[in-house]
Amino acid sequence: MAVYLVGGAVRDQLLGYPVKDRDWVVVGELPETLEQQGYQSVGKDFPVFLHPKTHEEYALARTERKVGQGYRGFECHADPDVTLEQDLQRRDLTLNAMAQDASGNIIDPFGGQKDLEHQCLRHVSPAFSEDPVRALRIARFAAKLPTFTIADETWALLKEMRDAGEFKALMPARIWQELTTALTEVEPQKFFDVLFELDVLETITHIWTSTPNCSGMDVLPSEAKMDRFLWCCIDQDVKRLQTGFERLVVPQAWRTPALWMAEGMWKQVDGSADRFVECCTQMDAWRRPDRFQNWLNVCQAHPVIGIEFSEIFKAWLTVFLAAQIVDVAALQAEGHAGAALGQAMLARRLALASQALHS
């Protein structure tokens, strides 16, 4: 059975990066052959199998033909007569269109190694323009490999796609997937820069009219997608942000703290215990302390906001930690109930907040 390591694993090996996921292509075989050897079929649109021991993905070599709009508008042909080169040709970028055989030899029919050497993001074939998701992917690779530049001919193809309205077929879920993955990359700013330069950033995201300032974002863990998304919402237009939430199906848990970022909640406190407690109540911090503290941590990590409002954030955290400890049972034992209990809790929080601020 002719099996080849393909795609990102080959690219990352050549770049000297750690390989996280390995994908394999099987050439010259039928699905039945893999099933007889214990591979588990998992592909819906084309033959993909899981290795019986490693559980890595093995796909039969295939070609694709455009039959409709969007990234789902393709007809796949997987057959023993499909060659490795034909399979590689359907891929997006030359640096992703390489394979490695069992002896370690690199198969590179489209110049991927040369483009790696010259730090160039280049499309494999004109079929690149048939899938609008590839605009998002090339923007994400710009964030992953920030020293790489996009080839002139690839830029020309992207502009043709834009002018033809191809990006209107992008599915919100796929936009969101590529965007949040880009936030974990080396330089997320590049993702937004590419889409902005292509003049499709607002069209695709419905949030940003210009690139958000991601400078300093690397102080946040790369896997902290929500935190990094909040960072990108600082000073954004609230109404546009809310429209984008619906368009991109942004998780509910992310929406409210993102609005706090857009509204600049830290500017709405004056340093008084009353205002700190009022804002905490407005932000539902007493019932959802983790969300509030997570938002506050992102604010404090920001190289501009965190420094300019450092004293505010310190005082706010002090007040919050002190005022959240209210003995509800004790207040009820004193006879407080209903609205009176709520008022007693507020009064107690104000007292604790004032004491914490002046201690």
Describe the protein's architecture and organization:
With 359 residues, the protein is α+β, with helices and mostly antiparallel strands. The protein has three domains: 1-127, Beta Polymerase, domain 2 (2-Layer Sandwich), CATH 3.30.460; 132-257, Orthogonal Bundle (cca-adding enzyme, domain 2); 264-359, no CATH class. Helix content is 48%, strand content 10%. The protein has helices at 8-15, 31-36, 84-89, 112-117, 133-144, 152-163, 172-182, 189-197, 201-205, 225-232, 238-248, 252-263, 273-282, 289-301, 305-308, 310-323, 328-333, 338-357, and strands at 2-6, 23-27, 40-41, 48-50, 57-60, 62-66, 74-78, 99-100, 106-107, 120-121, 149-150. Strands 3-4-5-2-1-8-9 form a seven-stranded mixed β-sheet. A hairpin with a 6-residue loop joins strand 3 (40-41) and strand 4. Helix 5 (133-144) packs across helix 8, helix 11 (238-248) runs antiparallel to helix 12 and helix 13 (273-282) packs across helix 16 (310-323). The protein starts with a strand and ends with a helix. The mean pLDDT is 92.
Task: Describe what is shown at a glance.
This protein is 48% helix and 10% strand. The protein has 18 helices and eleven strands.
Cα-to-Cα separation, first versus last residue: 75 Å
Helical fraction: 40-55%
Q: List low-confidence stretches.
A: none
State the secondary-structure class. Answer: alpha+beta
Rg over CA atoms: 26 Å
Mean pLDDT across all amino acids:
92
Oligomer: single chain
In spatial order, strands of the major sheet run 3-4-5-2-1-8-9
Order of helices and strands: EHEHEEEEEHEEHEHEHHHHHHHHHHHHH
Q: How many H/I helices?
A: 18
Number of domains: 3
How many β-strands, per DSSP?
A: 11
Overall shape: elongated
Q: What is the CATH architecture term of the largest domain?
A: 2-Layer Sandwich
The biggest beta sheet is recorded as:
7 strands, mixed
CATH topology-level fold name of the largest domain: Beta Polymerase, domain 2
